[in-house]
Amino acid sequence: MKYCNILFLSHFVPHTAKPARGMGAATVAVGPSRGVLKQSVASTAAKGGNIRQSVAPAATKAGGGGTTKRHAWDLKGKVSDMEGKVRNYQTKFKSVNQENEALRDTMVQRQSKMVEMEKELKKQKSQISEYEEELQALSGVREELEKVSSDKSTLQKELSNLEGKYKVMETLRDSQETELQTLKMKLSVQESTLARVQGTLRDTEEEVRSLKETVAQQEDELHAGEMERRRLHNTIQELKGNIRVFCRVRPLVDGGLSKHIQLPASDVKTITLAKTEESHTGKTAETQKNYIFSFDRVFGPMASQQEVFEEISLLVQSALDGYNVCCFAYGQTGSGKTYTMEGAEYDQARGVIPRAVQQIFRAAEKLATQGWEFTFTASFVEIYNESLRDLLYTGKASKRPEHEIRKSTNNEVTITNLTYEKVSNEDQVLGLIALANQNRSTAQTAQNDRSSRSHSVFQLDIEGVNVGRDVKCKSTLCLVDLAGSERMLKSQSQGERFKEMTAINGSLSNLGIVISALANKESYVPYRNSKLTYLLQSCLGGNSKTLMFVNIAPESDSFGETLNSLRFASKVNDCVIGTASANRK
Fold first, then answer.
1. Which is deepest, 105, 117, 214, 570, by most CB within 10 Å?
2. According to its UniProt record, which protein family does this protein belong to (predicted)?
3. Residues at the annotated binding site?
4. What kind and span of H or E run contains 268?
5. Alpha-carbon dihedral 504, 509, 513, 516, rounded to 10 degrees
6. Binding site for ATP, residues?
7. What domains are there in the chain, each with its CATH number?
């Protein structure tokens, strides 16, 4: 222990003191004690450097001028000095340790206080955030307060305006109260007037009810009268004959009448053909042979289109009454059939077809006031070289469909693939007729520049319904323009024209055969011998009212054709067909 103290103290001996030569071992042993000193110095460094202040006086005593310097051989003295120094240092070390302990306690207290301060800081921060939120809320309240203040000023202005208006309204109220009193007086007067008017109204209502009953009764009587008119009209038509023949003589090109045609002025139903025959022996004078024919009506060259139509207008009316009606024109080429049936464009020259269409639509308009509603469907077909062609077809010629005549279960004749157009007025029908005329087959012959080379058949299907009376009717108006009959020598037809003439004459010949069979009341009537007779089967021998125009040419060189046409027409006139009945439900 002494050696350690010596070595520890020797470290702090001033370097001016020279150690004894024999003390090398003690001097070498000073190294290990340095760490202890350094540790003490480090522990006291926190106290502000007090160790330096302690060590310095000791060094002064050991090697200063105030202490007797010991001899080198005085080791015991030196040891005692060193022991004193050690004691001094130990004392100071204890005090330093105490100070360290005190500092440690202070530090623990400071740490606990710091934790408390951190908690207080967090608490303060939380309060600050709350205060910030309250501040934000207060800023919103401030804005709202400003807005409320602004609204308050606005409302105050409005209030002042309303107060002004209120004063105006009070003034207006006073004036209106005055007016109200006046109106109450007028109202009392009006109420008394209203009472009188209501009494008059009740009387008027009673009168209206009475008039309605009278109107209903008159409508019933009108309907009954219409039904009676139709019955009487049909009776008149039946008395005239369900198949009638009219004869019409075309005027000469230069006007007048041929000598071989005689029309008695007092008889409008007779026509006479006079032919002068020379004596074959020459001994006797020329003789005149007369051919007398009687028809339902004969029209001379001066008869107008209107006169002709007036005779058949009652027959056209039958179509609206529910009866099938057929009208066709027969005669040689150039005798005026197409003119009779179609006429010219200007009104006075319009023919049977446009006038019939006009009458149908005008009569339908009148019947509409009695509760009738009509629908009309038009079609136009021609028979050319015994084949059917749709005259209302507007597609490509290469895609033209084929047509066949079919008979339905109720014996109605129809044509397959035919164009049927719904029409609602006269102009639509006339447009279809114009289209059909463009498509019809015509050609030039020696007898006519534009001769019809086919039979054309215009059909108008009519369906009527009277909802109030629960009555329906259905009929067909059929208007036919036959191709002209002609002789090969007179028409000078060749090639394709000759083929057409042969087909035309063949179909007309078959028409004559059918008429003869009907006139003779034969059990079998060959309707299927030609497309024409098959198509007109219902008109010739079925449920139809039929009219035939026989048109004759007045030229003397047409005497033979005229005679044949009149003979054929006479056969038709002698024909008796069954009584037509109305198609009503």
1. 570
2. Belongs to the TRAFAC class myosin-kinesin ATPase superfamily. Kinesin family. KIN-14 subfamily.
3. 331-338
4. none
5. 110
6. 331-338
7. 219-487+494-574 (3.40.850.10)
